[in-house]
Amino acid sequence: MKIAIGNDHAGTEYKFAIVEMLKEMNMEVENFGTNVSDSVDYPDFVHPVANAVENGTADYGILICGSGNGVAMTANKHANVRAGLCWTRELVELTRSHNNANILCLPARFTAKEQAMDMVKAFIETEFEGGRHQRRVDKIPLGC
User: What pLDDT score was predicted for residue 143?
Assistant: First the structure.
């Protein structure tokens, strides 16, 4: 499985920990995020992750910023991207099982690093339920 990951300056520390964990899980990781804590513009790192998920060169994406809102808003501008902003494991499981999210957005300033890593594991391990949820997911794109 290949994961595209991106972050702004608020998510650098979390990104490094998550990448290490993913590699230990034998995941392939493509890092589109900044590697420094100097202020940067999050869309510069979100669009490459969303593009990778959208065009299928990555199975899933993970985005990290201070609140998670900016990265979620930006990623969801892409067709066929369903980015879910989550701050608990339960929300992660629901966004995967009910919404078939393909990008997880994490708020680094509002979650502990260990909590964020647990949420990433849940995101990867949780399956989409399909059924009645598929009908709803099919209605998400514009023009339906």
Answer: 56
pLDDT confidence bin for 6, thresholds 50/70/90: very high
- Tokens representing residue 94 in the block: 């629901």
Q: Residue 107's beta-bridge partner residues?
A: 65
Q: Which residue has the tokens 């499985």?
A: 1
**For the chain, domain boundaries:** 2-138
CA dihedral 19, 23, 27, 30 (to 10 degrees): 40
In the chain, the amino acid numbered 57 is T
Mean pLDDT of 26-32: 98
Active site residue ranges: 65, 98
| The model's pTM | 0.96
CA distance 59 to 26: 14
Q: If one looks up domain 2-138 in CATH, what number appears? A: 3.40.1400.10
